[in-house]
## 1
Amino acid sequence: MMRRAVWLLLLLTWPTWGGADEREQQRPTALSVFEDRSGALGIDEVAALPEQAFRRLPERRFFREYTHSAFWFRVETVPASERDYRRWLSIGDPRLTDVAVYVPAERGWRRMQAGIVYPPEQWTVLARQPLFPVEPETKGQLFIRVAGDSLLVVEPLFWSEHELLTHRQRIAFADGLTLGIVLLVVPLSLVIGLIMRSPLLVVHAATVLGYIVLTCIVNGYLINWPALLPWTAHLRFLASVTSFAAVLTYLCVLLQVRQLPRVWVWIYGVAFTLFMLSSMWGLFVDYAVGRQAAEWVMRVVIYLLVPVTLLASWRRGLPLMWMAWAVPMLYMLQFLARYVFHADQIPWQSRQDFLSLSSTLPGVAVLTCTLITELYRSRARQRWAQAERGQRRLAARARLEATVARRTDQLDASLHARATLLSRLSQELRGPLLDIIDRARRLYAVASGDYPQRIERNAQRQLELIDELGALSDQDALPSPSLRAGSLHAFLRELAEEAELLAARQHNRFECGLGAAVPDEVLADFGRLRRVLINLLGNAAKFTHDGRIALSVDCIEHDERRVRLRFCVADTGIGVHLDDRANMQQPFIRGRNVGAIDGFGLGLDIVRQLLSSLGSALHLAEDQLPGSRFSFEVRLLLAERQDVAYGEAKP
């Protein structure tokens, strides 16, 4: 990643290489300067000064920062070539705000001017860089007056038409390439940062964007909007304050200042306040003092506060990314190059390169590294999230399997306990019932009527139920149906007698209807059929008061070997609530309208299990009539006549 960043940085600096050799033949042969501390001298007074008043510049390039003085330059003109019909004089850096050129004329001096202190219509040439035409016949000395509220970078150069066009093309290409790279990388970083929710990437992109706006204002690009030229100082103030705020926010996010004690946040807030107040002082009171103070605040933040913050974050054990170390190191290298070794030959380290358009490129290179880093971290977080999700899924599966195993063990233990309980109950109940059957048989000789037969029959049926209970405890399922031949009519008569007794308990009337096509001799499991009907009739008798209970049997299909019968139990009781119909056959579920009527909600569940063993199912009529109507259908085989002799109409 670092290798790619270095190659990118070299590519971005390419537009700034070369171009110095072509200027050697265009520079004036002599350049001297006079400082007018009052800034009030005119051309006649300066031209009358003695030779000793001017200081010769051996480097033919002049720099001065934030001063109230006006500087007068005396320039020896360069002889024009034969093919030049006009030459152009460039004074220096585009950020010059007050430039005047005095050329000898027949009657005194001819004045040409440029800079934002003059209305655009008063400029000699409306150009981003102060530019003045010099006629070929102009010879001798000319004077240049320079003043302004910014850095003064003065380097007078004479250009031919062709040289000026070539120079402008090169500068336009370099600036266009720089702006193209910035406008490509910065919006892309902003969009990706917003999508990825990366505060570091968003703030870094905003920092580069604010800086490029500031450099465009400083380098005279407002010339494209002449109406904004009088507001250059105000726009520069807003851009510099916004850019510095973005830089501080970027450093706070990068160095995780919010994770440090709160005093660090206050320190950065005080630094921003001092910078803003200094910039306001420079805008409204004294530009020299205010801008120098603002630069000192910026230097203290970058070269002192940032390394100290990095050490504080490191000592606190915060997880810092590699760029949190790289950015302060780059600032320290910049400090050494500028103020210790004075390495002006390094790109962007000379004073005239400060706030140049190409000085944005290192920030773009670092922004590209931030973008690559955030993409890599995003992929790493995605892989970590996938691994974490996989581990959680495995852990959840393990917990589920452990829970299932535990519940299975509990269920096995519960089933074993139930089987043990059922076995004990069946064993305990058999003894008294056998004694009841024996006593009933002894009553045959002395009792009148059929009461002994009824006692014996009911006790025998109860004994069969207990036997089934014992079988259920051994097999945990109902035993297979036991089919035998018998009289269905006699079975229904006995069932009707018991149903009349059940109905009479709550003053109900019982009715029994038998279809004409219902056969008599059938093969059926009379025991289970009886239990189904008794449960349904018992429920009807329980939930009906002073009403009617009816049992009907109809033949709906008949052939030579088998018959299909429909049994229906109807009542005029409280019925089944509409919201309870879906769960009415579940165990331990009681209707919400049963009130204080006793019960456990097991009757219909027993009926459902018994009918399932008979190959049938229970249905509830969905009508608006009062009460409830339960029905089911069973298929029975017709019994041969010789088989009926072995069975009776009792279960």
## 2
Amino acid sequence: MSEHARTGPTTSVAPDGATNTATHAHPDVETPPETTFPRLLATRAATTPHRLALQEKRYGIWQPLTWQEYHQRVRDFAHGLAALGVTAGDVVAVVGDNRPEWLIAEIAAQSIGAAVVGVYPTSIGDEVVHILGLAEVRVAIAEDQEQVDKLIELEQQLPQLRWAVYYDPHGLERYTEPWLREFTTVEQDGREWERDHPGWLDQQIAAGDPGDIAVICTTSGTTSRPKLGTLSHRNLLAMAANLTAVDPITDRHRYVSFLPLAWIGEQMLAVACGLSTGLPLSFPEAAATQRADLREIGPDVMFSPPRIWESMLSEVQVRIDEAGWLKRAVFAWGYRVGERTAELRVSGRRPGPLGRLTHRLADWVALRPVRDQLGLARIRRCYTGGAPLGPDVFRFFHAIGVNLKQIYGQTEICGIAVVHRDDDVRFSTVGVPIPGTDVAIDDSGEILLRSASVFHGYHRNDEATRAAVDPQGWLHTGDAGYLDDSGHLVVIDRASDVLQASDGTRFSSAFIENKIKFSPFVEEAVTVGSPDRSGITAIITIDPTTVGSWAEHEHLSYTTYTDLAQRSEVYHLIAEEVYRANTDLSASIQIRRFVLLHKQFDPDDDEVTRTRKVRRSVIAERYSGVIEALEAGADTARVTSTVTYQDGTNVKREIDLQVFDMSSYELPAGYKRRPIWTGRR
């Protein structure tokens, strides 16, 4: 495909020959440089050697690393990997939280022609074996004792693994396994290896081809074990060039890297956009200090899945609900002003002189303090993706002055193909294609994508690759959607999950679930049943933070999550939210009954993926009794809960969950819908 795309809605022919409407990006698409990440790093080190590249907070102090120091450590570790036997074409694994060592290991491996596969730090057992085994990993980089212990426990299941290199030595001083090496020791060995092989690494970097595989990212794995998508330097740098053509990033901007580098979203911004623009990265000290560190840095750019934005909104709700009446009244006024201004801004309009003056005052007294508490005081633009974000949440952030935009993409196209523009944000769409990207909708309603960022294929899975990318270069996303009259893409759901009721209503489980999840009191929802049989029913998990805050204001005492979830008052609270969701749904697909689960869905139980996507098959099997009770119209559903104590002993408990029937539910007298920013009426 030509890098110079046409402009405006045009007609495109899909692979099956059917005519489809497609949107092509604007024509000002610059061809990305034919280079590699290691060569980009060398250029940064040569042109801006003393500028900040990376910084990590340790013991409360930011530890900086300049581009020159970053480059030198990459060279040392690359030589060290060579000494361990890593060669071009190998795959090196990295498992752990975001640290400078992760990126040093990644670029070092790429310097000698190897690729890197990331493993989520929360991955356990079979997940780790699957990824390392499929990628035939011989050298794994582990963060700390916890990750090293995983590898030791799985040693017999990973016969190909030769070395494990750790970069946090705490607790590992007495480990005697001969295949364990400390990160700094490998760097030291690398310096010695370089003395015996002068000029070798420079030859390897020069020989690197932009088409070489740079990164292997796992797919979400909602229906099966995750596949490994192979992405080249050219794929990732084309994406970075096209994204920054829409939303420029410079080396003066700031970015806090706290989402797993195993995720394509973090590789997209932190690595690809970071190296191509010189964007300095900051790594929080720990998960517990993440929000404080974010506020201290004040990033200009940010990318997070919906759960992060929803968590931030929950934090605001709790703070405002705890504030006095005067602060609540001031914020309520400021929010109304911000909301009116945002409605104009996202449609490309501007308020008049009086509106601008009023908004400036509202921002000063009400909105900016909230942005500052969230660490978003300096934000220029931020993105959300991976799942739909509720329109109310979207409006909230725009109302307080946060330029939040939806993106759409997949691992197979480097994470992004479609994004909102600054002056054209529509809360029900995911935006328009970035430059260099074609979008088409085939006769079945499936979304097709084509660009220079489409991946090379699935590692050691040719059959799945052929099913994903056709000979014309179109990526078959498996998602259903359509292009609206303005060229914005609307995503419905996975094409295989789009169903049709007997009255002709087309729907998907995710569409209904998202309506429920737009409530700040709902963490997760899974719909079951059929509109043509027992009706749509739902299994819901509550958000413990927002519901807990609400319970406190309602003077409801509780002990555990299970206790809170089964309070009748909480059932009626969620019933109000389900009623609101039902008003947006046609009668045939409204939710008839629901149950509040006694626990949150847990990735360690395989109920959700590491990126918090529901595994429907696991839910259907594990909670089959609950589903049967919902479909039968029973008053209660019995589940067996296993409690594990600190000494390792297990106790099984039988719990009866209340089934709430919406058929006779009516809103309380005097009901008034609460504003999005508070849990109070």
